[in-house]
Specification:
mainly beta, 3 helices, 34 strands, about 40% strand, disordered N terminus
């Protein structure tokens, strides 16, 4: 046989030998199919890894229905969302776009060997939670003391779990039929029952549904509890010095929210102005603080102020009284004398030393005006002294006795300046007439004896001492006038 023929024969034998070796290895799966858990609407992909496929084919079937999806590179199903692909002879893919709940189940990768070989991968189509609107509560309004049920029903796959919490983070109060109370930060269940609710339970409640598939969802339900207004006043009696700003407050609780305003005892409604500042501050869903500031407090501002709260269920008010108090540095100042400075030798003459505290016009009551005209006065214990009662003039008088007229100052008639006073100076005590900004007025006082009119008895102006004093003054004035006239006549002559 020629050499060329020998070589050709050898090559044919080799090829046939390789074919026999290839068919000696049956196709098999290299890896298991990985299961998929895909949210609804997403895309899913199954991958089938095969070894030694050779001339065999790969097919895809729906495991539960045995419906053929694809064979090798050809799609058999009429579902447009299903496609196939392969990277090489060992990797074959089945693609499902925008999965739905109907796509949930097992998918089989099959080899057409004899016997047939297959493996299954499962598709779990999960659905994030969502609320069933017709079975879920909306905002609720109930009266205080009643009971209420809040409901949240959710759907999804797997089945969602519903949890209740308060939006502000406070605890939920659960009460049973026996009246026992349980305070919990959260409650699990579709229905939340609240019994004998109080105003402190008012607010927003959140029901949260979750099933491990993001995102979780929540719904906000507002619980309003209605009751008539209530007012609490921290201080019903408030004092302030004149000229200062004073603020009064009322604490209001009301639901629905009340209309709040201030009224003075004169019936005047007070609004914000240069004189008044009216302010409302909301503290919670049902609490508020109303305040009234009176600027530059004066005597005419003394009186009662009413805070009033009104809503659809009722009206309530409370009164606060403002009164005047002395300022922190306001004092009554009087003159101070030293016995060593006043009672000098009875046969000598000297000047009195009078000291006064500093006069602060803004911080003192009854401060003196001017004391510049302080005259020298003679001191004589055995003689009668005729001293002028001029404003700011020192007068030496006897100490007051129980029988002195009540309407006199240190035993001297209050008629004041430019009046001669005849005083026996057995013991010397000085007295100074002081003019104050607010002169002290002695009111008419009853003596206990009714007058002819049956209204007032004898007053100071009708007392015996007063009449004698007036008679003495009249007589002295006539004598003084005659002496002056006589002196003028003598000079003329």
């Amino acid at each position: 046989m020629p050499f060329n023929q020998l070589i050709t024969a050898a090559m044919v034998v080799a090829v046939l030998s390789n074919i026999k070796v290839a068919y000696a290895f049956q196709p098999d799966f290299a890896e298991s199919i990985i299961n998929n858990s895909i949210a609804i609407g997403r895309d899913a992909t199954f991958t089938c890894h095969v070894r030694h496929l050779g001339g065999y084919r790969v097919g895809w079937l729906k495991a539960d229905t045995k419906a053929i999806q694809a064979i090798h590179e050809h799609v058999i199903t009429h579902n447009p969302r299903v496609t196939v692909s392969h990277a090489d002879q060992n990797t074959w893919n089945l693609h499902i776009k925008s999965v739905t709940e109907e796509d949930r189940g097992g998918y089989m990768c099959q080899l057409n060997t004899d016997p047939m070989k297959s493996q299954i991968g499962y598709l779990d189509v999960v659905i994030p939670p969502d609320f069933i609107s017709e079975d879920t509560s909306s905002d609720v309004i109930v009266p205080e003391g009643s009971s209420v049920k809040l409901t949240c029903r959710a759907k999804g796959y797997p089945e969602p779990i519903v949890t209740w919490r308060r939006e502000d983070g406070t605890d939920i109060i659960l009460k049973d039929a026996a009246g026992s109370k349980q305070i919990v930060p959260s409650y699990r269940g579709e229905v939340l029952k609240l019994s004998k609710i109080s105003r402190s339970e008012m607010g927003s409640y959140l029901c949260i549904a979750s099933n491990g598939v993001p995102p979780s969802v929540s719904k906000r339900i507002s619980l309003s509890i209605h009751f008539h207004p209530v007012i609490q006043v921290p201080n019903q009696l408030v004092g302030a010095p004149l000229g200062t700003d004073v603020t009064i407050e009322c604490q209001i609780e009301a639901s629905p929210k009340s209309i709040n305003y201030w009224v003075k005892d004169t019936g005047e409604m007070l609004v914000s102005s240069p004189k008044y500042q009216v302010q409302d501050v909301t503290r919670s869903l049902y609490e508020a603080k109303m305040s009234l500031t009176v600027r530059s407090f004066q005597k005419e501002d003394v009186g009662s102020y009413r805070c009033i709260a009104k809503n659809s269920l009722g009206e309530v008010d409370s009164s606060i009284r403002l009164y005047e108090i002395p300022g922190r540095n306001r004092k009554m100042y009087t003159t101070k004398f030293s016995n060593n400075e006043v009672t000098k030798d009875s046969y000598k003459q000297g000047k009195l030393k009078v000291s006064f505290p500093p006069d602060d016009e803004e911080q003192q009551y009854g401060s003196t005006e001017d004391l510049n005209d302080v005259s020298d006065s003679s001191i004589n214990s055995n003689k009668q002294s005729n001293v002028q009662g001029k404003v700011g003039t020192i007068k030496f008088v006897t100490p007051r006795s129980p029988i002195d007229h009540s309407n006199s100052v240190n035993g001297v008639g209050t008629s004041g300046g430019y009046m001669g006073v005849n005083v026996h100076l057995n013991k010397q005590f000085p007295s100074i007439d002081i003019v104050t900004r607010n002169p002290f007025v002695i009111p008419t006082i009853r003596t206990g004896v009714d007058g002819p009119d049956g209204i007032n008895g004898h007053s100071y102006g009708h007392s015996t001492a007063s009449k004698k004093s007036l008679s003495f003054i009249t007589s002295f004035s006539i004598i003084f006038f005659l002496l002056v006239s006589l002196q003028i006549t003598i000079q003329t002559d």
